[in-house]
Design brief:
The protein is an alpha+beta fold. 37% of the residues lie in helices and 24% in strands.
């Protein structure tokens, strides 16, 4: 049980929810396989495969959303419908009209649906009711929205906000790269992406390459801003921070994984619990450290995501930054 990507959200301090109440509400919308005419089905599954929908360890909760999709490509439906349309045209002596073709495709879809293969997947979310975190293991905010949407439909009350910080990740990462130094507790690794905010969207990517050279500073001076930067926290967790405050390619290093212990590996549930406890304990240190490195939480801000939403804030923040960062967004540079 190790998350790979983190989409981080904030629960209010006064969120009135217990594990028992959450269990009761999730039980109202359990996962069921697709019916014969369903393209998709989703619902709550037990994280451990037993009857418990809210897996609690040390005051930390884990929930799991199950999905099932029917694999019926539109090209397959079109091919079958076109073949039938040709046969009907020969029998009738004239081609089918647009409305008839549409009805034929709908008929083919209904006939093929029960025979289509299905694919299942799971998505996990960690809820920290003590510190007010909700973290979805998803590669993007749009994918995490599937989990949030289902929670909204399931729970009586679900107040949630996207984590925002005083400094935008882009301007902070630019400052760290320009100065060649990460904030306390962090080290800069060797992966980075710099992207121009001009219309050409020119980008340069570094992989397993030192980032302290003049070429990186040159790209910053030319108006490129970091959209991804690989970091390590406390020599225990490596990850990539993005301009949207996503944490990707999360990897718990051996010094953490070795704490699971050999005894737990003979018991699947004990191993699951040990890994979940270790993961949440480490993330409980990482998340506040990331927020602190970005100047603390931004209270009462509207939720905006994406590079375009961040640019005005980046420009304002970096105008007062150290010389190299300031040159990146100087008023006489090309417009953003």
């Amino acid at each position: 049980m190790w998350f790979k990507n983190l989409q981080v959200y904030r629960l209010p301090a006064n969120w009135d929810m217990s594990a028992e109440r959450l269990e009761e509400q999730l039980a109202k919308k359990p996962f069921h396989p697709c019916g014969s005419q369903d393209m998709e089905s989703r619902g709550w599954l037990s994280p451990l495969g037993n009857e418990v929908l809210v897996h609690a360890v040390g005051g930390q909760w884990l929930v799991c959303l199950g999905f099932e999709h029917r694999l019926l490509p539109s090209a397959v439906v079109k091919q079958e419908a076109d073949e039938r349309a040709e046969e009907l045209a020969e029998q009738q002596g004239y081609k089918l009209g647009r409305k008839q073709l549409k009805e034929l495709r709908e008929q083919v879809t209904q006939e093929l649906m029960p025979r289509a293969f299905t694919r299942r997947r799971r998505m996990f979310a960690w809820i920290d009711p003590i510190n007010g975190w909700l973290v979805v293991d998803a590669a993007s905010q749009s994918k995490a929205e599937d989990m949030l949407e289902q929670l909204r439909h399931t729970l009586d009350s679900f107040p949630l906000t996207l984590l925002r910080t005083e400094r935008s990740p882009m301007s902070a990462m630019a400052d760290w790269l320009a100065g060649g130094e990460a904030p306390d507790g962090f080290t800069i690794d060797q992966d980075c992406e710099l992207r121009s905010v001009a219309e050409d969207k020119a980008a340069v990517r570094y992989a397993r390459h030192p980032l302290e050279g003049d070429d990186v500073k040159g790209h910053l001076e030319a108006g490129k801003l970091p959209t991804r930067l690989a970091l390590t926290f406390d020599d225990r967790i490596s990850f990539v921070l993005t301009e949207k405050l996503e944490i990707k390619r999360l990897d718990f290093l051996d010094i953490v994984r070795d704490q699971v212990g050999e005894a737990d590996k003979d018991d699947a549930e004990a191993l699951f619990n040990a890994e979940f406890a270790l993961m949440t304990g480490e993330l409980a240190h990482l998340l506040p450290a990331v927020v602190a490195a970005l100047g603390g939480e931004l209270a009462g801000a509207a939720v905006e995501t994406g590079v375009s939403a961040e640019l005005p804030r980046v420009q304002k923040e970096m105008a007062a930054a150290r010389p190299v960062s300031a040159q990146t967004v100087a008023a006489d540079d090309p417009p953003f």
